[in-house]
Write a structure and sequence with these properties.
By secondary structure, this protein is α/β, with parallel strands linked by helices. The chain has helices spanning 51-64, 96-111, 144-156, 167-179, 216-227, 231-242, 250-276, 302-310, 332-338, 343-349, and strands at residues 8-12, 16-23, 29-37, 43-44, 47-48, 73-78, 83-90, 118-124, 135-143, 160-166, 185-191, 196-202, 205-212, 289-293, 314-316. The chain has a 5-stranded mixed β-sheet, with helices on both faces. It has a 5-stranded mixed β-sheet with strand order 13-12-11-14-15, sandwiched between helices. It is globular, with a radius of gyration of 20 Å.
Length: 362
């Protein structure tokens, strides 16, 4: 009976932890949502530096949300350099064992890691051969030492781990549920605190991801130096400006604009590299749209800067666009103002225990 209950999504980021619970099949319904900030340095590049502190903060959040952990399973998402993702073309074969060997060999070549140190899985993106006669396969690896950190935290919460995902695919899952399959080649840009992920998707099929070592913290750190304020005030001013407060210092606009241009330049480099690498599907030679997700998606002027540079329509993603949110249970002002922070968590919460994941015992 416990396996039929929805997974509790636990998103452990570099600046905060988020918990979301969503029920339903075709029609999703929000059951719980909450966030707690993490002290600086507790999570770095996807690795948990302080397991006990992370567990304590999560316990408090789950208690506040009144989520019962007994018999429950959690879904978690990995990120950073601990996750290895590669799309490859694979020549079909009827020999299953030979197929597994070839895929394992491909993973060894592309990941360039000792495979004994990784949890490894793969996913067949399409059963139809492409123009080269190969089937697209997605290879996914995760460092065991990092996975074990997440498993330890979840066990400490009194739950078992039902699914281990990658934040790239969690965001894709959230996006597809809310916006469907978009025609053409699009970029889904997830802007976190320290990392921005640019994922290219063609008609719903994953193609490529690049991590950019920039995020919301870059804006905050630049504002701290330029305005000579502490981190709390810099964050507050950044948020106020993004919400249209005209009383913020003019210097803030200059700093944010500069960082916007740096981030947009990296996004442009990512797209250019993909096309120059010759991996684009036949006949696809340009983007048709960009979708901004994550905590930094509403940064002042970022959407306009991306549109001006890439010359495509830009839209800010709402993770709850098609999710049923009961206004009698949840503060709609909060969902509208802060919902963009939950892009990964919402995609995780929509998973089921039977979904394909990075293999790991819980």
């Amino acid at each position: 009976m416990f396996l039929n209950r929805p997974l509790v999504a636990v998103d452990i980021g570099s600046s905060s932890v988020k918990v979301v619970e969503i029920s339903g099949g075709t029609d999703k319904k929000l059951r719980a949502i909450g966030l707690e900030l993490l002290p600086e340095g507790i999570v770095v590049d996807g690795a948990i530096q302080d397991l006990k502190a992370t567990e304590k903060i999560l316990k408090g959040l789950i208690r506040k949300l009144k989520i019962t952990t007994t018999g429950r399973r959690a879904a978690v998402a990995l990120s950073g350099s601990s996750v290895l993702i590669k799309r490859v073309g694979f020549t079909p074969t009827d020999d299953v064992s030979e197929m597994h060997e070839q895929i394992f060999y491909e993973a060894e070549q592309h990941f360039q890691h000792d495979m004994d140190e990784l949890y490894f899985d793969y996913y067949e993106l399409s059963s139809t051969p492409d123009h080269n006669g190969t089937i697209p396969i997605l290879l996914v690896g995760a460092k065991k030492e990092i996975v074990e950190q997440y498993l330890t935290v979840i066990r400490g919460l009194g739950m078992r781990t039902g699914l281990i995902d990658c934040d790239v695919f969690s965001v894709s899952n959230m996006f597809e549920y809310n916006y469907g399959i978009i025609d053409g080649l699009i970029a889904v840009v997830n802007i976190g605190a320290t990392v921005t992920q640019v994922s290219l998707v063609h008609r719903g099929e994953y193609l490529y991801t690049r991590d950019i070592s920039m995020g919301g913290d870059d804006y905050t750190n630049r504002l701290i130096n330029a305005l000579e304020v502490d981190r709390k005030n810099a964050e507050s001013l950044k948020i106020s400006a993004s919400q249209g407060d005209d009383s913020v210092p003019p210097t803030l606009h200059e700093v944010v604009s500069e960082v916007n241009q740096q981030l947009v330049s990296e996004i442009q480099v990512t797209v250019d590299y993909y096309f120059q690498n010759g991996e684009a599907p036949p006949g696809v030679n340009q983007l048709t749209g960009v979708y901004l997700a994550g905590g930094g998606s509403r940064t002042l002027g970022l959407d306009a800067a991306v549109a001006a540079s890439l010359h495509v329509p830009v839209q800010i993603v709402n993770p709850f666009h098609r999710v049923n949110v009961n206004p009698r249970r949840f503060q709609m002002d909060y969902i509208l103002a802060q919902g963009h922070l939950y892009s990964v968590a919402v995609g995780l919460a929509m998973r089921t225990i039977n979904d394909s994941t990075v293999s790991a015992s819980a």
